[in-house]
Amino acid sequence: MHRGKGMKFVGDSRVPVNRKPNIPKDYSEYPGKTEAFWPNFLLKEWMVGAVFLIGYLCLTIAHPSPLEKIADPSDTAYIPLPDWYFLFLYQLLKYTYASGPYNVIGAFIIPGLAFGALMLAPFIDRGPERRPSKRPLATGFMLLAIAGIFYLTWESVANHDWEAAEQQGKIVAEAEIDKEAEGYKIYEAQGCISCHGGELAGGAGAPALIDTGLSPEEVAKIAKEGQGAMPAGIFKGTDEELQKLSEFISSIESK
Known about the structure:
Elements (H helix, E strand, L loop, with lengths): L6 E4 L2 E4 L20 H26 L24 H6 L10 H22 L11 H23 L3 H8 L12 H8 L3 H4 L19 H10 L13 H12 L5
Antiparallel strand pairs: 1-2
Helix pairs in contact: 6-9, 8-9
């Protein structure tokens, strides 16, 4: 075998005599197509970032966060609602096959299978094609996932009681509640706390009992005959307990 031009034998292989380092060309060798990272490109990135930051700050000032009142663990009528990107998972827990005794299915198994399939997608579909039409398996699973997320999110928004949620989260005036008072103990024993809350701040299905402006007689009448969403006959105590309860509620005023 003859020795090739510019080559020499090293064992059984041929390598170039003169090796050139693999150094990329300078950006100046491509006029009009590239630019220096510092300061040209980085300055443009900073300017775009500053515009988005100022716009975001303007939105936060114009539309403050919708804060709600302090959480009340005793308010069993509270309707929870997670952030928008978790609404599809929240809706999933409303179905019978994924809630109650099957809660683990909706909370772990179904989401685990869905996200696990996304993680395994690169290993399942290993074809060289890049067009969606040439990758029916990956395209089909992705379209199914997007359709499922959109549907569950829409169902969660459409079935949520927004008026009740607005009322339950409304920040009301605070009052000093004497929880050792006899009237409060009657209020708690009669189950009023489940709707009106431990701080008497109301909830999704009941108004606040602070600054009602009602006389004890008016409060007693509502407790016996009901009003609005509150049916009649809720109070099951004696007349003496009703009087103490009505006087207690009528006397509560904000700070």
